[in-house]
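Please produce the structure of this protein holding AN7.
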Amino acid sequence: MRYTGLIERFRSRLPVAAETKIISLGEGGTPLIECQNIAKIIGHNVEIYVKYEGLNPTGSFKDRGMTLAVTKAVEAGSKAIICASTGNTSASAAAYAARAGIKAFVLIPQGKIAMGKLAQALMHGAIIIQIKGNFDDGMRLVKEVAEHAPVAIVNSINPYRLQGQKTAAFEIVEELEGAPDYHYLPIGNAGNISAHWIGYKEYLADKKSQKTPKMVGYQAAGSAPFVAGKMIDNPETIATAIRIGHPQSWDLAHKVEAESGGWFASCTDAEILSAQKLLSSSEGIFCEPASAASLAGVMADVKSGKIPKGAKIVCTLTGHGLKDPDTAISQCSGAMININPVMDEVKNAIINNM
Ligand code: AN7
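Below is the modeled complex.
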């Protein structure tokens, strides 16, 4: 049977009616890949799986929430949606709005979103409003303007976003035939960690699993309000997707931490880039910098002894590496060999590098 997206697949667990017109691009159903090479490098006998959310239609997990948020906005008669974004939400909103035949207005921080994301928002025909400020400024403005203009907010403060995103937890439990011991995610607004927790709890209540994982949220060191225990006004990190100082799901995420027995922590930009490179070069999996904060977190916590031997760990890789080619290429400078177009020079390049 043709796969038609996560709303159809998990219809009975989502707030849609038989007559609801579904706006879908075939999102969900992403691979859960075991990383045996990295597990071997880390040592310690842990099982590491990555949920490769970069393989959603617009290249990030946002599509899981956006399919439902846009479906419900259209059902309610909205002709336009709006969001503030560090990039991925804007790309997803733009695509689903195009699919639905409605307008998307996106507020992005000028000069601070990755090139692939900007290309997507432009191509899908979103109205792009660049602000001389950061994501948090954009979010504040979106909330204000939605009270004065006929637009539906599709940021994760829209509860349909979290309902759609909870389906990632369903897929993980089904594929592992039970919940993992730990689930690591990169944290920005903390919507995704909250959505996963809804999903894990739902499957536990329905006896589709016997337990829930400890939920662990990793932030970039220069942008870590959950670690600081307070909002931050000038967040900075190379992982622009999670350059967020005033997380919208502050209370929800603290509940997740307490209920699941998990924790929040941070890693440096260098650790993030190193985990991103490790995934690419030793597993063949290319994620964007922010996504690699999850694996960087696992590596730090294994090293410090927080993770027991034999643990089963899932890391969410939230976005595709192609979203941010600039950061990838600048990390690998000097990695190319330049030659004249003659066989001997190609041969030498091979022999010298075997
Ligand atoms: C790749 O696009 O907030 O903790 O505006 O793009 O649920 O916010 C992106 C967030 C992690 C953090 N990884 O998720 C936006 C935006 C990637 C992301 C996050 C984002 P949340």
